[in-house]
Amino acid sequence: MTKTLKEYQLDERVDTFALLKSVEVRMTQQGKRYMALQLADRSMTIKGMKWDATEAEVSEIKAGKVVHIQAVRQAYQDKPQLKVLSIRLTQVGEPQDPTDFVSAAPMQKQDMAEEVSAIILQITNANWQRIVRYVLNKYHDAFLQFPAAKSNHHAFAGGLAYHTLSIVHLAQAVVKQYEQVNASLLYAAALLHDLGKVIELSGPVATQYTTAGSLIGHIVLVDEEIVLAATELKIDLQSEDMLVLRHTVLAHHGLMEYGSPVRPMIKEANILHQLDELDAGMQSFDNALEQTNPGEFSPRQWALDNRSVYKPENISFNSETD
Amino acid sequence: MTKTLKEYQLDERVDTFALLKSVEVRMTQQGKRYMALQLADRSMTIKGMKWDATEAEVSEIKAGKVVHIQAVRQAYQDKPQLKVLSIRLTQVGEPQDPTDFVSAAPMQKQDMAEEVSAIILQITNANWQRIVRYVLNKYHDAFLQFPAAKSNHHAFAGGLAYHTLSIVHLAQAVVKQYEQVNASLLYAAALLHDLGKVIELSGPVATQYTTAGSLIGHIVLVDEEIVLAATELKIDLQSEDMLVLRHTVLAHHGLMEYGSPVRPMIKEANILHQLDELDAGMQSFDNALEQTNPGEFSPRQWALDNRSVYKPENISFNSETD
Amino acid sequence: MTKTLKEYQLDERVDTFALLKSVEVRMTQQGKRYMALQLADRSMTIKGMKWDATEAEVSEIKAGKVVHIQAVRQAYQDKPQLKVLSIRLTQVGEPQDPTDFVSAAPMQKQDMAEEVSAIILQITNANWQRIVRYVLNKYHDAFLQFPAAKSNHHAFAGGLAYHTLSIVHLAQAVVKQYEQVNASLLYAAALLHDLGKVIELSGPVATQYTTAGSLIGHIVLVDEEIVLAATELKIDLQSEDMLVLRHTVLAHHGLMEYGSPVRPMIKEANILHQLDELDAGMQSFDNALEQTNPGEFSPRQWALDNRSVYKPENISFNSETD
Amino acid sequence: MTKTLKEYQLDERVDTFALLKSVEVRMTQQGKRYMALQLADRSMTIKGMKWDATEAEVSEIKAGKVVHIQAVRQAYQDKPQLKVLSIRLTQVGEPQDPTDFVSAAPMQKQDMAEEVSAIILQITNANWQRIVRYVLNKYHDAFLQFPAAKSNHHAFAGGLAYHTLSIVHLAQAVVKQYEQVNASLLYAAALLHDLGKVIELSGPVATQYTTAGSLIGHIVLVDEEIVLAATELKIDLQSEDMLVLRHTVLAHHGLMEYGSPVRPMIKEANILHQLDELDAGMQSFDNALEQTNPGEFSPRQWALDNRSVYKPENISFNSETD
Amino acid sequence: MTKTLKEYQLDERVDTFALLKSVEVRMTQQGKRYMALQLADRSMTIKGMKWDATEAEVSEIKAGKVVHIQAVRQAYQDKPQLKVLSIRLTQVGEPQDPTDFVSAAPMQKQDMAEEVSAIILQITNANWQRIVRYVLNKYHDAFLQFPAAKSNHHAFAGGLAYHTLSIVHLAQAVVKQYEQVNASLLYAAALLHDLGKVIELSGPVATQYTTAGSLIGHIVLVDEEIVLAATELKIDLQSEDMLVLRHTVLAHHGLMEYGSPVRPMIKEANILHQLDELDAGMQSFDNALEQTNPGEFSPRQWALDNRSVYKPENISFNSETD
Amino acid sequence: MTKTLKEYQLDERVDTFALLKSVEVRMTQQGKRYMALQLADRSMTIKGMKWDATEAEVSEIKAGKVVHIQAVRQAYQDKPQLKVLSIRLTQVGEPQDPTDFVSAAPMQKQDMAEEVSAIILQITNANWQRIVRYVLNKYHDAFLQFPAAKSNHHAFAGGLAYHTLSIVHLAQAVVKQYEQVNASLLYAAALLHDLGKVIELSGPVATQYTTAGSLIGHIVLVDEEIVLAATELKIDLQSEDMLVLRHTVLAHHGLMEYGSPVRPMIKEANILHQLDELDAGMQSFDNALEQTNPGEFSPRQWALDNRSVYKPENISFNSETD
After folding, report:
1. Of C80, C101, C122, which one is at a domain's C-terminal end?
2. What sequence ranges are listed for the domain HD (chains A, B, C, D, E, F) (predicted)?
3. Cβ of B72 under 8 Å from any chain E Cβ?
4. Quick check: is C290 in a domain?
5. Predicted confidence (pLDDT) per residue in A89-144, tens digit
């Protein structure tokens, strides 16, 4: 069985398949052409340098493809890097499906789909349930395949559905603890809140922002989908049901500076915003801690307002305390 | 012919009709009931106090009605105020239409409607022209009657259309001066940019925010209308035409802190934002200067970030320099 | 059985006992002395005016005492107010215990104490468990009696313990959902995080900030208690156990602008901060919604960054969806 | 006829004259000396590298001179760059005037001078007209030659006058549309507002900030010139004419954080500020769009608060709509 | 000898002379005319109410005049207030000079003038010394009489010179402690830094902002004076001496948001800014502590970013520690 | 006698001892291993490059050691740099004490210790004097040896004590000038304010933040020491003496955003904050000016909010003006 990229040691010879996430053809200051690559499998993403790139390589090797590489694992500025000796596209009989090399959510698509269905049943308000069904149905596959971000938190295939379900689970705990919460509204808005990302982002492999994503943003994009659904389903857009659902989704970034056109003015909107922050924070800490040794501080994290975070040495996790 | 409210002098006896903009029944600290009123005609809005309000008055006199008053004009904390001696609803044969007492835009509705039609013809892109026609048609009357704000700039009947036309005029000057501007996009977005106010606000008399206005806001409300129009007209929502039009409208507040979910990333969006600020600034200065004597500073203006503004003594206006 | 203050109607004659929360002796502009009172029982707090206050009343009637009043319920600027006709301290045989008139947490002290004990057992790290026991023991009674704030969220007797338990419950849900969380650290810090309020505030009745509270603040005050406890228990202050516990408590306001001398750099510190915000938000929304009619917006809420919040008309609560 | 720098293709041999905008002598990490150059003609500015720089080259080749180069056009990190093979100063008979290599405003100096004269005639207030004449006369040549900035908007020879005229043109449109504007004040302040840049910047070639520019800034520098002019012309500094003119110029950055010691408190000051922002925005967008392919986003733009901007694919310009 | 205003007790009958700092004629809500007064002597400023003001009183009694009053000392909302029974202008033979009633700096004018002269001699750079002499000479009397502010810190007659000297004294301590400071520059800029206030403010009695003060501000006003002086004295405005002096004065507010058009970029400019803040802070704390009882907190102080400050009970001052 | 590092010229051969402040083993892009070094003696810190580092060198050469080097002085990107030809640890008989190579405060340790003792005697309040003695005694050596920062202001051995004494000296000038200052409190707090740095930082050589420093911060760390001292000395923690001392120390960063959990609410706390800023500003300017030629601007300084600072050409220092 093949080794993963993470398993190779410093100075070890690498001979494997990988997904080419990006490639840039550059010149050295002295004018020689080389290729700067990002290579990935499910264990990690690693930079690679192919010096003295040939014309053929430059024209053939494209981002999003599976490649075969021979290389040596080195380190550059404290980070692992591959000195790529040879690179070629894979052939018939070799791995060719990019999604086999993309890290994925810890749940299976099918399980996530089933759980979503179960939650929809808990939405007792008919209007909200119909809207959620309609919109999730329209984007069923993308919802289960897309990441929740280009990079940072939940940037893996299936990350969108996984992040959505995390929030629904937290929402269920909140509903259990506090009496005065409208569970239907909270679940409906939680299921829809980030769905605009299926239009904002390009897809699960080599994820980029789309033009629609940059010019409109996922918050308004999903609001538009809700409005179109309501029109299709003949639900009155000016009814309170529709106003509070749109508000709860629109306000989920909490602050206007973060792109919500309105601040949360309904209790369920405030809860959704807080749970979104909590779950994003969990993922951002986990990302940071993965790169950090016990007893040390991480590099500064853009997704955490530029904080570094500390990984305690002598700390154990909750399994023991259950 | 009747005097306007503004024409009465200090201590003069007032006997006239007025629109009752608001009424609150209060108690003095000693426990006597009185009515605090806002009365208006086209010349001004003035506070009034009806001491010792009777049960009948309290139950009958409602905001939004035309009333007949007898009063004395006084001043309280440097501001004019009426001591109302008697107040009653008007009867058949007396003025009863509230809109006769509301200040209005300096242009006639009909003239504004015609000018809007002429501008639509200058939108040479068919998609944008059809969208603008469709949406303006749907809200034709409200567009011509609504104010552009609850208070502050353009808070008068017809203010929405008037403010819109001011911006279109400035846009025409910009198009003339700078070569690389897409006039069709700029005019289309200018005509639509504030149209969500016909849903955000309650109407031209005794204007309040609606629930939809507070929970969603006029920026997203008009975006939803554009999306519905495109669907109805079978124009592809993901076409560049539709993306840049929605973007230009969504970004017109310029900053996310001011409620735009995206910042202007298209040149025409940036122009629209700047012209909106320029026209709003003109109105805010005019409002402030109206209350200010030459050679003095106005009270601080909320609409101008709390600035006071100065009214020069020896300054004359542009007629002379033409 | 006596009516509560809330049950009296407008213009009804009031004859009851109440807690005098504050009293100020003032002059009218015309120079007459009167007393402005705040009166409370568990149903509400209401302003009162005692006109023509006598010397005896002024010298005898003090905040924090139970009084007997005769009054008429009126309204002033839309708010209920009592015109107090007579006021006197209660005598033997009449109610005299202020805590009988203070609103209280929805849980009994004894139940809260037991639950806290149960949670302490879930702290499997011996150092943290000993610290928590030591400090909670030292302030046992105050912890169960104090409010969590002077006003705003959880400003009722027992509010401190109740708010603490709410956060522990949410923490338990988080521990259950996410694998990589140190439950012991999270529970220990959650139990201690606001305990400095027993020094910061004056007590459950007529709550004020103490001098120590204003000059030092509850965040540093509890850190000092932890340090003193560790010294007493001979636990090394420089051990990682002690550093991460102090950090988690110190960082719980999340931002330095909100008084935390450090931002959360440990995952459990970030969780505690988020849960603190979530629970405070729940209480602030409930406070706002209590004063609001269905289908209307609340007045602006200081505790919610000056937002008004909306109370939907047609919304039902989670009981139905369980 | 010689090719411009822009016309050379990748890998093409370059043999041409150029202006040397800047030169830095550096070492490679291995300790070899080389020269990093900025070379320009009117078509573009391009980086160049002269490896193995000789002592003679280092001492002779200075910024601001016209040079002859032989080079190869390459690309480094996606940007065009010249590998310079030989470089020498030009000799008699070859081009030697730096201004022949500097990009310039789209209007001729003479035309701009004439238009300025025409506008001065529209200033009907004698004091303002005399001040404007005096100060513009004093800096006549520099006003027509200087750029409006070191880099960013209007950073080309004649840019200062061109930017000034753009604002005057917009001001004329504003005067035409709004009745209550003092045109004389607006034109006078517009003509003077950025004139301090002739002291703040070093000149049209290889533009740098002067010491006076950094320590005082162009806003105060032009205010000082106005004050000196008034003294020379015996116009009372404390007259309202002089106060409002100085205010209008001083306030043109709009906010104190942007270097205006006062915010606009006069209507014409507010207009000037808005028009300045509008014109700067036009230039910043044009700069960004020049580097951007249709259907793509630009790199982030410092001059636009770090936004990227979008260049639509299918958009046409205003010629069609005229 | 007459009692000062401060010496009168609650309910005591007052019969004295005072300066009338301001007067407003108002109506009660019931429509009766009264005068709201601010009366002052050197001991304090106190509000007064003259109910039932006569026509004669209203037309005769003006701010800035010395008046004779008969009144009763009362309290309104915890603050002392006079119920004025009679008020009239003083006559020949009675006190008539307003400055006798204004609180003054703790130093005599003459002493301040002498000390300023002594410091000028310590400015060893001839250009700076000549500029300082010229400008201080031009505004000699105003410099010694004006307050340093309308209200807040140093708002007493002579406050400008006194604040200036405080800063010079601190500057002397800094010069003594740190070797690398240019004392001449620091002293010259310290003497001039706030001198623009003689134009910004109206004078020592009933101090208001002038139009020039509001539209231009004291920072630019004094820079203009320096420029005029240099021109008169034929000192080159572009010399480094003049640039650093102007910079040091212009930058003394430290931040552009506080009205300095440039931030301190010269060491002496930074020192002057810090000392200005230190001295202003001392005065603001003293103002706040004067209104505060030992062991209590002051009301929130606008001049201290809305802080309340604490007055310790058991604290003694530096005399003991000398 | 050996030359210092600063005395070597460009291209000169270097043969000397130095402290190795840091070392990083890196790869060139082509995959060759080299060592990037920071070498220092008391004259300067300089970068060094040891190309083709051997295994032996990599394993032996560690930060914090004294080394012998042979090298050539070069320049890289305008900064001096050593091309290291050979490097080895020093042996017996050669210099081996790192502190001999660290730049130090301009005062001797012994002199600083004596001056601190003298100041302690000026603290006339017994509680404060005992606390200061106790805490300074506990950390006596570290207080005299530690720097005041990792980099930036006072980043030299003994810098902590030196910065502390600078502030005490300024405090003495303030006490002399202003009457109402409690000198004992100010001196006690000044002596303690930065003492937490002996826990926050790792020591005088190769200074890093400790885990305690990052997670708790020096402000709270010293507060904890004060609390422990008071407990040990049986001084009541809730006494006003202890509250105001802790407050004054806790508030010395002035703003919560800068890490003080409370803003200065006591006059002495405000003074300490201002003096801390003044002294830090002096050091930051001196650091910037050391790298700057007369008549030029420094690079932007992180420690001065990213300002560049100007070094005047023709300016002389205060010796002349004394």
Report:
1. C101
2. 160-281
3. yes
4. no
5. 999 889 988 878 877 778 899 999 999 999 999 999 999 999 999 999 999 999 99
Residues 181 through 210 of chain B touching chain A, CB cutoff 8 Å:
199
- Per-residue model confidence (pLDDT) at position F322: 37
- Look at F194 and D7; give whichever has higher pLDDT: F194
Asked, for residue B317, whether it belongs to a domain, the answer is no
pLDDT of residue D78: 66
The pLDDT value recorded for residue C44 is 81
Residues B59 and B141 in one domain: no
Give the domain CATH number at F23.
Answer: 2.40.50.140
Looking at the fold, whether E89 and E124 belong to one and the same domain comes out as no
Q: Is residue F208 domain-shared with residue F140, that is, in the same domain? A: yes
Q: Which residues of F touch E266 (CB under 8 A)?
A: 309-310, 312
Number of domains in chain A: 2
* Contact list, D252 vs chain E (CB under 8 Å): none
Same domain, A138 and A95: no
Residues ≥6 apart with Cβ < 8 Å to F213: F197, F199, F200, F201, F221
F72 in reach of chain D (CB within 8 A): yes
Per-residue pLDDT tens for D184-236? 999 999 999 999 999 999 988 878 899 999 999 999 999 999 999 999 999 99
Pick the last residue of a domain from C41, C70, C101. Answer: C101
Same domain, F257 and F117: yes
d(CA E289, CA E297): 9
CA angle B306, B308, B309 (to 5 degrees): 130
| HEC letters along chain D | CCCCHHHCCCCCEEEEEEEEEEEEEEECCCCCEEEEEEEECCCCEEEEEECCCCHHHHHHCCCCCEEEEEEEEEEECCEEEEEEEEEEECCCCCCCCHHHHCCECCCCHHHHHHHHHHHHHCCCCHHHHHHHHHHHHHCHHHHHHCCCCCCCCCCCECHHHHHHHHHHHHHHHHHHHCCCCCHHHHHHHHHHCCCCHHHHECCCCCCCECHHHHHCCHHHHHHHHHHHHHHHCCCCCCCHHHHHHHHHHHCCCCCHHHCCCCCCCCHHHHHHHHHHHHHHHHHHHHHHHHCCCCCEECCCEHHHCCECCEECCCCCCHHHHC
Same domain, B118 and B92: no
Task: Say yes or no: C30 contacts chain E, CB-CB below 8 A.
Answer: yes
Interface residue A278 vs chain C (CB under 8 A): yes
Q: Which of E31, E211, E215 sits opposite B74 (nearest CB)?
A: E31
Instruction: Tell me whether residue A169 is in a domain.
Output: yes
The ipTM estimated for the assembled molecules is 0.85
| Full residue range of the structural domain in which residue A235 is found | 109-284
Q: How many of the other CB atoms lie within 10 Å of CB of E2?
A: 10
Ramachandran region, residue D64 (left: φ > 0; alpha: ψ -120 to 50; beta: rest)? left
In a shared domain, residues C65 and C44: yes
Output the CA angle E268-E270-E274, nearest 5 degrees: 115
In chain B, whose CA is at the least distance from the CA of E210? B296
Q: Which of residues 161-180 of F touch E (CB under 8 A)?
A: 166, 169-170, 173-175, 177-180
Say whether both E35 and E141 belong to one domain: no
